[in-house]
Amino acid sequence: MAKKGNRVQVILECTEHKESGMPGTSRYITTKNKKNTPGRMELKKYNKILKKVTLHKEIK
Prior knowledge:
With 60 residues, the protein is mainly beta. Helix content is 10%, strand content 48%. The protein contains one helix and four strands. The chain is elongated, with a radius of gyration of 14 Å. The model has no long low-confidence stretch (mean pLDDT 90).
């Protein structure tokens, strides 16, 4: 029988790009274990539009 996991898909959105007002968005889709990380995730990822590594936060 299939096991119901604690893993859920989350969307990470760039914080710097959002504040800059430039058109477009930088988003990544990843998974997290909601049992181990109940809070919102924050990762440093590459933003293709700004051409640098920026902080990406989880959105709903």
